[in-house]
Amino acid sequence: MKNIIIILLLIFGISAQADVSSVLATIPVQDSGRIKPFDTFSRETLQLIHGKKEYEGKPAVNIVMTWMLMPGLW
């Protein structure tokens, strides 16, 4: 997981002290032909699958990113 975060930090030119979740939340993604922030996509997807916009107190951005980066955990 640390390697993936480091790669993301390098790709987006973010200092290591920045909050990665807040930066990821602003990345535009395409969903059903519409462009929306990753945060909106994450909350809508988690709401659809889990019925809530958070999972065990963790924000949707973190949950959806772990779905994509480490699917074996789920």
Quick take:
With 74 residues, the chain is α+β, with helices and mostly antiparallel strands. It has 4 helices and 4 strands. Strands 1-2 form a two-stranded antiparallel ribbon.
Which secondary structure elements does this structure contain, and how are they paired or packed?
Elements: H1 2-12, H2 20-25, E1 28-31, E2 34-37, H3 38-50, E3 54-55, E4 58-59, H4 60-69
Antiparallel strand pairs: 1-2, 3-4
Helix pairs in contact: 3-4
Provide key terms for this protein.
alpha+beta; two-stranded antiparallel sheet; 74 residues; two-stranded antiparallel ribbon
What is the N-to-C succession of helices and strands? HHEEHEEH
Range of helix content: 40-55%
Question: Strand portion, in percent?
Answer: 15-25%
Unreliable stretches covering 5 or more consecutive residues: none
Number of helices: 4
The 3D shape can be described as globular
Distance between the termini: 15 Å
Largest sheet: 2 strands, antiparallel
Mean pLDDT: 82
Strand segment count: 4
What would you call the structural class?
A: alpha+beta
What is the CA-based Rg, rounded?
A: 13 Å
- Order of strands in the sheet with most strands: 1-2
